[in-house]
Amino acid sequence: MGSSEDSVSDTPLLATPVSPTIDRRPPGTDDDDRTSRFGHLVAAVLTVVGLYVVNNLPDWDILPFLTDDFDRVLPLINLSLGANLVISLLRLVQPRKWFVILTDVIGTAFGLPALVRTWQVFPFDFDAGFWDLAVRVVLVIAIAGSIIGMIVGVVRLVARLTRAW
Q: How many Cα atoms are found within 13 Å in the side-chain-facing hemisphere of 151?
């Protein structure tokens, strides 16, 4: 029992000190602010491109299945894209996680009316019945996913904010 090997093996494993990981970032910030800010900048740029494309689609005549009723959906699509552009720009200066969760809910809330209006107007004219059904199924999934996403977002936001108090 006098050997050093015996004394090491008799030491319980839990007795070894464990150093905790110290997170020096303010609570609620993203893992890497530079990466998230770059992502928000890319999102803003892509949203501007999306606004340009969506507003010029009727004039370009490149989508033969798009009907003149697209103009009845366009204002809500523009509102949704515009809101999401503002959200992306705000996230550049406020990348905290609680703010990202809140603006996810707000952005989805702006997108939902555009999806519902697209379902109502259905500005598409496909030759084959399959595509009508496929697009309607995608719209239903997008509407349901948006509603579920907003509920989950509100729950996550409340959980994060109450945990901070």
A: 6
Phi and psi angles of residue 66, each rounded to the nearest 5 degrees, phi first = -80, 125
Nearest-10 crossing angle of helices 97-121, 129-164: 160
Q: Residue 96: which domain range?
A: 32-164
Residues of the chain with pLDDT under 50: 7-9, 11-16, 19, 22-23, 28-30
The total domain count for the chain is 1
The C-alpha atoms of residue 86 and residue 47 are separated, in whole angstroms, by: 10
Whole-model pTM above 0.70? yes
Q: Would residue 22 count as lying in a domain?
A: no
The answer to whether position 74 is within a domain reads: yes
List the one residue out of 80, 76, 77, 102 whose CA is nearest residue 91.
Answer: 102
